[in-house]
Design goal:
The complex is a heterotrimer of chains A (289), B (315) and C (513).
Chain A: H1 2-13, H2 16-33, H3 69-105, H4 107-122, H5 125-136, H6 140-166, H7 170-177, H8 182-193, H9 195-218, H10 230-238, H11 245-281
Helix pairs in contact in A: 2-3, 2-11, 3-4, 3-6, 3-9, 4-6, 5-6, 6-8, 6-9, 7-8, 9-10, 9-11, 10-11
Chain B: H1 2-29, H2 35-39, H3 45-54, H4 61-73, H5 87-122, H6 127-141, H7 144-158, H8 175-209, H9 212-219, H10 224-254, H11 256-261, H12 267-276, H13 280-308
Chain C: H1 2-17, E1 37-42, H2 59-65, E2 70-72, E3 78-80, E4 83-88, E5 94-99, H3 113-124, E6 139-146, E7 149-154, H4 160-169, E8 191-197, E9 201-206, E10 220-225, H5 229-237, E11 243-245, H6 249-257, E12 261-263, E13 269-275, H7 285-294, H8 297-305, E14 310-311, H9 325-330, H10 335-344, H11 349-352, E15 356-360, H12 364-379, E16 385-389, H13 391-399, E17 405-410, H14 441-452, H15 457-474, E18 477-483, E19 488-490, E20 494-495, E21 511-512
The chains are: A mainly alpha (289), B mainly alpha (315), C alpha+beta (513).
Chain lengths: 289, 315, 513
């Protein structure tokens, strides 16, 4: 399994777009992780220097309270990545077991669980997330949970599809023959073999999670200020379009590049996995995504 | 077909019932009530108590729910706690705006998405294809609120061509005004959807191009334009209709971010306002309308399938 | 572009910092103005037509559908309106009014003493009196010797200014329509209601029998409701409306720059950092007093209100009789003085934190200025979090007094000083935040002293000074700045704007150049 992932990584790096994306994400992640070591202060106010355009002192300019926008973008990466990571984890921890159980047992369990998933899908996820935040109160963990819940259906559906393909295969029936318990079969036998598509889903979801977190902040229900957040910066920047046009533009650029990077990597992985399947079955799988 | 549609309609009822109860339960879990906003900051305790009684908010939740349900089944969704206007009327005022924007966005998306998909599907993996795929990725990756901001900066702040904030102008009343107001939000949403459409249509076009009947047609010497135009397009349209339908359904309530960027008076923003002021009947009404629209459009898509491709059977 | 616009912004900010910015263009050339259809963009949906519910959302219609007994000029001088004359008894325990002749309500009903009596009765009723009720507390009873005369008796001698405030606050309602006044307007005003589309707007037309000569100028008055400031500004810029009423200061500054006219009236609000002195470290007086110096008022005014307004350390608008500039200088932003008071409080570092600033997340200005305070607090070593609430959740917390500290504007601060007690934090009894018994008896006594100061100018002045001193000493409300409400931003072709003492929208003198 580990070898599989390493070879997947190698093949990923062979693609130029994916390699570039990885490099950018690494940069963002490093900046977020070691932001404390950089000479950047995301909270220091200086109202006299408010809404300055980009300059040699502050590369991205300053915001309405005279804070350094670059510093806030760097620290905002922390907010964004932590929320996205937590959300993906939440979605996987709930969605995968739901999908496994639904697919493994079928019948009424399948119907019930999948109807719940359908309801989640029917409401636009941004509205659902907002409603959830209204219940939980505005905080980083609320944003994380709200975004995570939106990701549950994706994981559940993929896990379910994988189980349904795998459960009749020889090695699964063999384990069952030896008297393996359902839990053991699901989590120890089937899950490891269904990992690749789930990893791809996690990466695809990461891009969606970052987008959704930013959208929630843009709508004014994300991580509360003064914690820097990209979406919040776009929200505030939008009301200063006339005075400081670069305010909303630069954080948006970093946000967009981050989303695009995750998306590019996700698509590259899908393509690689698709080719594997194509090689294995000899058939073309068109329009999979 | 009629029986199928009827059965699908019947299936919607339990889902709506479940959803309406879930919404009610959720509303009561939310901290803060509607009374504070109604009576205002400087109100005394007697005024608050009177307002709670007036709106029947002191009754048990189950009683309130059943009361609401009874009226709703009779077609009365109650009145907004704030404006005292019937919920259906408030929604009815926003729905045309939402539909107009959704339609305009879909048109933009088709105008961009179809040519992009065809151009890249003609020669898969060529440089043109790669470039156009890049477009799709970009269209999908750029957050609508950022694109909206960029468009406002360019067309409103710099060039002064278009308004920086939109309002709803019915198209048949003042087409030019309506277009000016719709241009930026429709472009913002349309670009995003064009990414989805292009990706999807390209994949199914390539899939169809490899299908047997296409090979047969080529072998028989049918002109390539006819093959692409008639055979491939027709079959590739099938999944395409689904996507367009799903997008439409999603826009009914899900275009809130774009609506927020351009301060467009759509249904999504009405719902957000309702949540913010805890206007219970309005929240219920909005969410149910969004759900019904979603399900009806899905049904319409399935019915359209059958019309495009008579091979599909409905059981 | 970037550089230019930034400089433009700064210059505007500077220009606005000067005194009396927009008062120049008053109705001088009313004769040359033409009528027509006046299209006004407003930001709030009207709540109802009751003139005794004087909330911001009703500001755009009240003075167009109704008239007051008397009016104030923007400088606070009383002028006749529906009352042509008023005589305050020498012992200051009653006032006698002479009512205008030849005035009729929209229903055709003639305006007589009975309508003033009905209006007084409604105002004195705790259920129906709404915003007028607390003002009626000084009134004992009333009588009408004849159809044109009304006498109002007070419980005790009342200062002149307070009597005038009451008369200006009283808006006669048609006795025939007084029970349905929430849904059907019943006034004598310059305009009558034509139609209303909830959530969208309201159409009024000129009252042909209006008593003021040659008014109103515009035959039709159309209000359109915009849900957001930006949308209203955009409509003004694109020519879809002629006037935006009650938009934000920031937009006004930008639009003025773009060639639009901006009119700001005397009825400003004062932003107050409200402190719940029944909780945590705020029970400590010295700790509270530190906040007098902790407010970076200049920054707050600049980032929250684009510099439009004045920094203040007392809850008075500049037009208030108790306004005292010297306090603003004494209590200027000074972290060292704040630190000294914090040290003097004797509180441990732990005891000083652990509270939150409640913030109205839907109010952009309050989000920004709360962060300014948060920044200042961090500089003196007190880390606090912002408790962001949206809409109803915020108002519920505010209403229940369920907060440690929060920013909230107070109104009625340009009139008689004790009117400040209509705002929840300054209430002397039944205060929802500080509860009963009031934890600051000195403040309650100071308010009572102002209310009772019916003697000479020196006595009144001493009472005001005492109140001011107590306000900064008790420090449960820390005012930061005055700012404009009901700003009027108009296209260049509009003329004849009348400024109202309460900044209500008065359309009758407005016309097209």
């Amino acid at each position: 399994m580990r070898d599989g992932l390493i070879s997947l990584g190698r093949r990923l790096l062979a693609r130029r777009g994916a390699a570039l994306s990885l490099a950018f994400l690494a940069l963002v992640a490093l900046a977020a992780a070691f932001a404390g070591l950089l000479p950047l202060d995301p909270l220091g106010q200086s109202v006299a220097d408010a809404l300055k355009p980009p300059s040699s002192e502050s590369w991205f300019g300053t915001d309405e309270l005279g804070r350094d926008i670059l510093a806030r973008v760097v620290y905002g990466a922390r907010t964004s990545l932590v929320t996205a990571f937590g959300a993906v984890l939440t979605a996987a921890l709930v969605g995968v077991p739901v999908g496994l159980v639904a697919g493994f047992y079928g019948g009424w369990r399948d119907s019930l669980l999948m109807r719940c998933i359908d309801v989640l899908l029917a409401l636009p996820n941004i509205l659902f997330a907002m409603a959830l935040i209204a219940v939980l109160g505005r905080s980083q963990s609320a944003a994380l949970i709200a975004v995570g819940v939106a990701g549950i259906p994706g994981f559940a559906r993929i896990a379910r599809a994988q189980v349904m393909t795998l459960r009749s295969l020889d090695f699964v029936t063999a384990v069952r023959g030896f008297g393996g318990k359902p839990g053991y079969i699901m989590f120890r036998t089937i899950l490891p073999n269904a990992l690749s598509p789930l990893v791809v889903q996690a990466i695809v979801l990461a891009s969606i999670a970052i987008l959704l977190e930013a959208a929630l902040a843009f709508l004014g229900v994300g991580v509360p200020p003064p914690t820097p957040s990209w979406g919040e910066m776009l929200r505030t920047g939008k009301s200063y379009l006339y005075e400081a046009p670069s305010y909303a533009v630069l954080p948006g650029l970093v946000l967009t590049l981050t989303i695009l990077s995750f998306d590019t990597i996700g698509r590259a992985l899908t393509a690689i996995l698709d080719r594997d399947e194509t090689d294995a079955s000899g058939a073309t799988i068109g329009g999979r995504r | 077909m009629t029986a199928y549609v009827l059965r699908r309609l019947a299936q919607m009822l339990p889902v709506l019932l479940l959803a309406s109860f879930a919404i009610f339960a959720m509303i009561y879990a939310v901290p803060g009530g509607p009374v504070a906003v109604i009576v205002g900051e400087n109100a005394g305790p007697e005024e608050i108590a009177a307002a709670i009684r007036r709106y029947g908010l002191d009754r048990p939740m189950a009683v309130q729910y059943l009361d609401w349900l009874g009226r709703a089944l009779a077609g009365d969704f109650g009145s907004s706690l704030h404006s005292r206007q019937p919920v259906l009327q408030l929604i009815g005022e926003r729905l045309p705006a939402t539909l107009q924007l959704a339609l305009a966005a879909i048109l933009v998306a088709l105008a961009i998405g179809i040519p992009v998909a065809i151009a890249s599907a003609v020669r898969p993996h060529s440089w043109l294809d790669r470039m156009l795929s890049g477009w799709s990725a970009l269209a999908l990756g750029v957050p609508t609120f950022w694109l909206g901001i960029l468009l406002i900066l360019l067309f409103a702040v710099e060039l002064h061509w278009l308004p920086s904030a939109s309002r709803h102008v019915p198209f048949w009343q003042a087409p030019l005004d309506a277009l000016r107001s719709l241009a930026l939000p429709a472009l913002t949403l349309g670009v995003y959807v064009s990414g989805i459409l292009a990706r999807f249509l390209r994949a199914s076009l390539i899939g169809e191009a490899r299908a047997d009947y296409v090979r047969t047609a080529r072998a028989k010497g049918v002109p390539e334009r006819r093959i692409v135009g008639l055979h491939i397009m027709r079959n590739a349209m099938l999944p395409f209709v689904t996507i367009v339908g799903l997008m439409m359904a999603n826009f009914i309530g899900g275009a809130v971010v774009t609506e927020a960027v351009f301060t467009y008076p759509g249904l999504g923003r009405l719902l957000i306002q309702a949540i913010s002021t805890r206007d219970y009947p309005l929240i219920q009404g909005c969410i149910l309308v969004i759900l019904v629209a979603y399900m009806l459009i899905n049904l319409l898509v399935d019915a359209l399938y059958a019309w495009i491709d008579p091979r599909i059977e409905y059981r | 572009m970037t550089k230019l616009s930034r400089r433009r912004f700064c210059i505007t900010g500077l220009a606005l910092a000067g005194a009396a910015p927009f008062a120049a263009a008053l109705p001088a050339a009313a004769q040359t103005l033409k009528g027509g259809t006046l299209r006004v963009g407003v930001l709030y949906e009207l709540a109802n037509y009751d003139p005794q519910q004087l909330s911001t959302v009703n500001f755009h219609v009240i003075k167009n559908l109704y008239d007051s007994l008397i009016e104030y000029t923007p400088e606070g001088k009383p002028e006749p309106s529906l009352a042509t004359n008023w005589t305050i008894a020498p012992d200051k325990t009653s006032v006698t009014l002479t009512l205008r002749e030849g005035v009729s309500f929209h229903s055709g009903n003639p305006f007589k003493a009975d309508s003033v009596l009905a209006t007084l009765q409604k105002g004195a009723d705790p259920k129906r009196g709404k915003n007028v009720f607390s003002t009626m507390a000084i009134v004992k009873d009333w009588s009408a010797p004849d159809e044109r005369t009304v006498t109002i008796n007070f419980k005790a001698p009342v200062p002149d200014r307070q009597i005038l405030d009451l008369l200006q606050f009283l808006i006669p309602i048609d006795p025939k329509g007084i029970d349905t006044v929430e849904t059907v307007p019943a006034g004598t005003g310059a305009y009558t209601l034509v139609s209303r589309a909830v959530g969208q707007g309201l159409t009024l037309k000129a009252n042909p029998k209006y008593w003021r000569e040659k008014q109103p100028l515009a035959q039709d008055l159309v209000f359109t409701v915009f849900s957001e400031d930006a949308a209203a500004s955009a409509a003004l810029e694109s020519g879809a409306v002629d006037i935006v009423y009650n938009g934000s200061s920031r937009s006004a500054v930008r639009l003025k720059d773009a060639g639009f006219q901006v009119f700001s009236g005397p009825g400003q609000l004062v932003q107050v950092f409200r402190i719940n002195s029944t909780r945590g470290p705020f029970r400590n007086k010295s700790f509270r007093q530190a906040f007098n110096y902790l407010m970076d008022r200049a920054s707050i005014l600049r980032v929250g209100y684009a510099g439009m307004g004045k920094v203040v350390a007392l809850p008075w608008a500049p037009a208030s009789p108790a306004f005292d500039e010297s306090y603003t200088r004494t209590y200027a932003y000074d972290l060292d003085k704040a630190k000294k008071l914090i040290a003097a409080s004797g509180l441990s570092a732990d005891a000083m934190k652990g509270w939150k600033i409640l913030v109205d997340g839907s109010n952009e200005a309050s989000v920004t200025i709360s962060q300014v305070v948060q920044g200042s607090l961090a500089k003196v070593g007190i880390p606090v979090e912002l408790d962001m609430r949206q809409g109803a959740e915020y108002v519920t917390a505010l209403l229940g007094g369920d907060f440690d500290a929060t920013f909230g504007a107070v109104g009625n601060v340009q009139k008689f000083p004790t009117r400040v007690t209509t705002n929840s934090i300054y209430r002397t009894a039944g205060n929802p935040i500080l509860k009963d018994p009031h934890p600051h008896p000195d403040y309650v006594a100071a308010i009572a002293r102002v209310d009772g100061a019916a003697g000479g100018e020196a006595e009144v002045k001493a009472a005001y000074d005492n109140l001011n001193r107590v306000l900064v000493d008790e420090a449960f409300g820390i005012p930061t700045n005055s700012y404009d409400v009901g700003l009027i931003v108009a296209s260049e072709k509009i003329g004849g704007v009348t400024l109202d003492i309460d900044n209500l929208f008065v359309a009758r003198t407005i016309g097209f150049k």
